[in-house]
Design brief:
By secondary structure, the chain is an alpha/beta fold. It is 36% helix and 13% strand. Strand 4, helix 6 and strand 5 form a beta-alpha-beta unit. Helix 2 crosses helix 9.
């Protein structure tokens, strides 16, 4: 089990500003509609108190180097461009409140994605609440009955939840991108590039590239 999941001190709250924490990246000629539900690894607004000044996936060196933009670039290269709605669900990872989610993400639930990627879980208060989070996660999946679902496990390994995702993938036939080994490899993290150790625990450019490659490998067969 990777201790970083408990020592990462980047708050789950305040990763995005007030208002709806989702936005659309349009290809202009989309083959399909893609939604990515994530947390700071997917998108984090600037926070000078953390030494983070980007407006993309923490802690890539630029927007072009975060896993979302790398994934969309690969899809474009392969002739399957996507209109992509990105939603930061870090607060939901803590509150697990379905009504709150529906109230705060009207654009997401009106988007009707063809494919939904769930890149979630690192901010959950897992210890002692594993079952509660798993049940909330299943309710979240159920809110998108018409979408093809793709799961990823955690960047920082947490075996009880990673195992739940593997079982869910096998039971329902959802493709699963395995990421948990990446967080054990210092090369995959930003490390000393950032003064804040919590930011530095996030995937750097190499980690982001590996996340994008593994998600693409799981995504390609279903599109």
């Amino acid at each position: 089990m990777n201790k970083d999941i408990f020592t990462n001190d980047v708050p789950a709250y305040g990763q995005v500003s007030s208002g709806e924490p989702s936005f659309l990246l349009s290809s202009g000629k989309a083959f399909f509609k893609l939604a990515i539900l994530g947390n700071s690894i997917t998108y984090h607004e600037p926070n000078p108190s953390l030494g983070w000044h980007g407006q993309y996936g923490m802690a890539a060196s630029s927007a072009d180097n975060d896993y979302v933009h790398l994934l969309l670039g690969k899809l474009m290269e392969m002739g399957k461009p996507a209109d992509c709605l990105i939603a930061n669900l870090a607060e939901w990872e803590r509150n697990l409140d379905e009504e709150w989610l529906l109230a705060h993400y009207p654009t997401l639930f009106g988007f009707d994605p063809d494919v939904l990627i769930l890149r979630l879980g690192e901010n959950a208060d897992h210890r002692g609440r594993e079952k509660e989070f798993e049940e909330a996660y299943l309710r979240l999946v159920g809110l998108f009955p018409k979408s093809k679902i793709l799961l990823t496990d955690l960047f920082w390994e947490y075996a009880p939840f990673d195992d739940f995702l593997l079982r869910l993938s096998e039971k329902r036939g959802y493709p699963l991108a395995i990421l948990h080994d990446l967080g054990d490899d210092p090369r995959m993290k930003a490390g000393s590039l950032f003064d804040n150790p919590g930011v530095g625990l996030h995937p750097g450019d190499l980690g982001m590239r590996m996340i994008a490659e593994r998600i693409f490998a799981a995504l390609w067969p279903i599109i």
